[in-house]
Amino acid sequence: MNGENADQGEIGKFDRDASAWWDPEGPFAPLHAITPLRLDHIESRIGSLAGLSVVDVGCGGGLLSEPMAARGARVTGIDLAPETLETARLHAHGTGLSIDYREIAAEALAAEAAGRFDVVTCMELLEHVPDPAAVVEACSTLVRPGGAVFFSTINRNARAWLLAVVGAERVLRLLPAGTHDARAFIRPAELARWARRSGLEMNNLTGLHYNPLTRHYFLTDDTRVNYLAHCTRTNP
């Protein structure tokens, strides 16, 4: 396992709640709520996942890996949190889905599986690693030329700090306090620069928002807080 580009405190934070990953009312409830949106967004951009080879970078407990597999994709899920991965394996076994879960860093997998995947997903990971640009580069290496890479992260500005940290963690208690460090949030221009440097072309940015009155998440053109980026590998 190559864990150089990893924060052990972040890994421990998610492993502490490993048994609760699949509790829709637990600490990962927001991820349960947004997974259908993320999944439909991916297929709206590239078409059906059926038959495609996908690697889910920073897969956590498998909340996105499983529904992608259920839609016919051949899914590899990677993460550096061992307890979380065990939860993912057990849940997939219980649902009868075949997913290859591995405890390996994106950079290490890229060294052994360059260009092997049609689609790479990297959701809510970049803001939790010391060197997000290195993860972007690894994701580009993993995808085949012409393949798609999807990132989901949080913009860095006062509004994002107010809504994603103060609002989501301290007021609404949607997430455990301390889930995010606003200093690690990533502006779209930064992500676009890392993508270009790694041979990726950014095709689309889509915002993801939460309405506290209706308690629903929705996609929007407003990328000032949470956003998803769809990129394509352009270089051979």
From TrEMBL:
Enumerate the Gene3D superfamilies for this protein.
Answer: Vaccinia Virus protein VP39 (3.40.50.150)
SUPFAM superfamilies for this protein: S-adenosyl-L-methionine-dependent methyltransferases
Q: Quote the record's binding site residues for S-adenosyl-L-methionine.
A: 38, 58, 79, 123
Q: A single Pfam family, by name?
A: Methyltransf_23
> What EC number(s) is this enzyme filed under?
2.1.1.222, 2.1.1.64
Specify the protein name. Ubiquinone biosynthesis O-methyltransferase
| Alphabetized UniProt keyword annotations | Methyltransferase, S-adenosyl-L-methionine, Transferase, Ubiquinone biosynthesis
User: Do the record's keywords include Amino-acid biosynthesis?
Assistant: no
Origin organism is Spiribacter onubensis
Which terms under GO biological process does the entry name?
methylation
Classification via InterPro entries: SAM-dependent_MTases_sf, UbiG_MeTrfase
State the protein's purpose: O-methyltransferase that catalyzes the 2 O-methylation steps in the ubiquinone biosynthetic pathway.
Name the pathway it acts in: Cofactor biosynthesis; ubiquinone biosynthesis
Q: Which family does it belong to?
A: Belongs to the methyltransferase superfamily. UbiG/COQ3 family.
Keyword presence, Transferase: yes
- TM segment ranges: none
Q: Which residues form a coiled coil?
A: none
Q: Which domain of life is it from?
A: Bacteria
What does the record give as the reaction this protein catalyses?
Answer: a 3-(all-trans-polyprenyl)benzene-1,2-diol + S-adenosyl-L-methionine = a 2-methoxy-6-(all-trans-polyprenyl)phenol + S-adenosyl-L-homocysteine + H(+); a 3-demethylubiquinol + S-adenosyl-L-methionine = a ubiquinol + S-adenosyl-L-homocysteine + H(+)
Molecular function (GO) terms for this protein are: 2-polyprenyl-6-hydroxyphenol methylase activity; 3-demethylubiquinol 3-O-methyltransferase activity
User: Which HAMAP family does this chain map to?
Assistant: UbiG
